[in-house]
Write a structure and sequence with these properties.
Length: 120
């Protein structure tokens, strides 16, 4: 599967997973788009506005990677908060919750990937 930049959709979003504020999501694989035989459920670049956050949410039937490309923030996993910056990668395993807040003065840019068991 190949998704050229020209084929990806960039959309404005508010309240990511019941969070505060908003930003942009550029979807290589938008949420809800099914790829036969694949475990991937979403592949997106997220740009969180300063002060915005992705609300804490549970991954009951899938797992998600946040890979921070630029900016700074606070990552929350199961209630534990740690600083997040460029190059940091966070994996929310099935059964765990996570969220992310942009604490910097510019956008926090990250790659978000959700995958699940093929049967989920």
């Amino acid at each position: 599967m190949i998704r050229k930049a020209s084929e990806q959709s960039k959309v404005r979003r508010e309240a990511f997973t019941n969070g505060v504020g908003g930003g942009f999501a550029t979807h290589a694989l938008p949420p809800g788009e099914k790829v036969p035989g694949s475990r991937f459920q979403m592949i997106s670049q997220i740009e969180l506005d300063p002060g915005s956050c992705i609300g804490s949410h549970l991954h009951g039937e899938n797992e998600e990677i946040y890979w921070i490309l630029s900016g700074e923030g606070i990552y929350n996993e199961d209630g534990t908060e740690i600083p997040a910056g460029p190059g940091d990668m966070f994996l929310a395993l099935q059964g765990h919750s996570h969220g992310l807040k942009n604490t910097g003065s510019g956008p926090l840019v990250m790659l978000a990937v959700i995958a699940a068991d093929r049967n989920a």
